[in-house]
Amino acid sequence: MQAAGSLADRKAEAQRRLCTYAALAGVALLATACGTPKKELTTGSIPSASASARPVQTMTESELKAAAGSLGATYEKNPNDKANGLNYANLLRMTGKNDQSLAVMQQMAIRFPSDREVLAAYGKAQAAAGQLEQALATIGRAQTPDRPDWRLKSAEGAILDQLGRPAEARQAYRDALDIKPNEPSVLSNLGMSYLLAKDLKTAETYLRSAVAQPGADSGVRQNLALAVGLQGRFDEAERIAGAELSPTQAQDNVRYLRAMLAQDNAWKKLASQDTRSPGAKAVN
Question: Looking at the record, which segments are called Disordered (predicted)?
Fold first, then answer.
């Protein structure tokens, strides 16, 4: 019985991790498995839960709970700590607590009404809670034409992608890249925009460019692993994921992705198109 429970825990952990990557990417494929409506998904990378912690994407369930508890306790003691509040809201959003994340960001926006970073995060929290039009308005309110902020442009693109306006979204990402060339988080968002449109080759191109940039974080690399895996190149996806995850975690992620692809005919066809590439595997 204990062994069965351990296997179940591993499956749950694998699903949670892939749902994390899907949430970062906004991928509809895993939305049903994750129990998350598509409108609540966001693009982009999530920062570490704290300055000293490793990326939340590599944390176990118990570590995520511990991090949330620690950040929450710090937030209660000092709600004026901007960095902690932002990380706390991000972690809440990542773990599916969108309403609570939004509540935290509402308070942060009251405390820092003209802070662009806070307003950008507030817009993302609104988007994750399904308030897409409000989110777009929040981002627009924070932006200033004479001093455009690349973070706000990137956040605007993420929201436009969720609104089903990919052309406008990609223009926002390119505007962000004009301000901050080769920024890995923006390149990742641009890649995810193409992935949402099931243009996997273009998505991979931008994601590889993102990964090659200094400062590319774990979320960017895991997004690349997802894009590669969606094309049926599971061994390669596992190698990319395994650069930061444990071998078991990387294997579980790819195993789960393989299973989900096999159950979805549309994505299965997309994956099978890549079997002409050397080393690629068909979806079974």
Answer: 39-58
